[in-house]
């Protein structure tokens, strides 16, 4: 089915100047960028976005990293977009990410891991709504 998923290019990958390279991978695999914003998250915004991880031991490092520089946030649309984006990203820990994936090629650590992608339709809907009012979505 045609799905939408939320993607974030994290501060490490923005600093490495690979936004375009990552967008090319989305486009080559048939995913379309239908909304995008570059922003420097506040602590409250990062904490709110990652609220499901609030009680995990890595939460404060994750938030600190996500506010360390600007991020590029986009909605990707396409057939099977959630799984397709996760296949492109590779495993959360770049040491375990398959060769040729975004994380294998650009990530340095499990925190500085280049990209985020929604993991299921329910989380995609919540994450898209967090950053994009419906009026800013352009799907054709
Ligand atoms: P992301 O997909 O953005 O979702 C939560 C982030 O927490 C994850 O990518 C990692 O960058 C970070 N993180 C740090 N340590 C862990 C861990 N042990 N398990 C999962 N995520 C972690």
Automatic annotation (TrEMBL):
InterPro entries: NDK-like_dom, NDK-like_dom_sf, Nucleoside_diP_kinase, Nucleoside_diP_kinase_AS. It is found in: Cytoplasm. ATP binds at residues 10, 58, 86, 92, 103, 113. The active site is at 116 (pros-phosphohistidine intermediate). The keyword Transit peptide does not apply. SMART domains: NDK. One of its GO terms (cellular component) is cytoplasm. Keywords: ATP-binding, Cytoplasm, Kinase, Magnesium, Metal-binding, Nucleotide metabolism, Nucleotide-binding, Phosphoprotein, Transferase. The keyword rRNA processing does not apply. Residues 2-139 form the Nucleoside diphosphate kinase-like domain. Its cofactor is Mg(2+). GO terms for molecular function: ATP binding; metal ion binding; nucleoside diphosphate kinase activity. SUPFAM superfamilies: Nucleoside diphosphate kinase, NDK (SSF54919). It catalyses: a 2'-deoxyribonucleoside 5'-diphosphate + ATP = a 2'-deoxyribonucleoside 5'-triphosphate + ADP; a ribonucleoside 5'-diphosphate + ATP = a ribonucleoside 5'-triphosphate + ADP. GO terms for biological process: CTP biosynthetic process; GTP biosynthetic process; UTP biosynthetic process. Its EC number is 2.7.4.6. Gene3D superfamilies: Nucleoside diphosphate kinase-like domain (3.30.70.141). Major role in the synthesis of nucleoside triphosphates other than ATP. The ATP gamma phosphate is transferred to the NDP beta phosphate via a ping-pong mechanism, using a phosphorylated active-site intermediate. Belongs to the NDK family. Homotetramer. This is Nucleoside diphosphate kinase. It comes from Nitrosospira lacus.
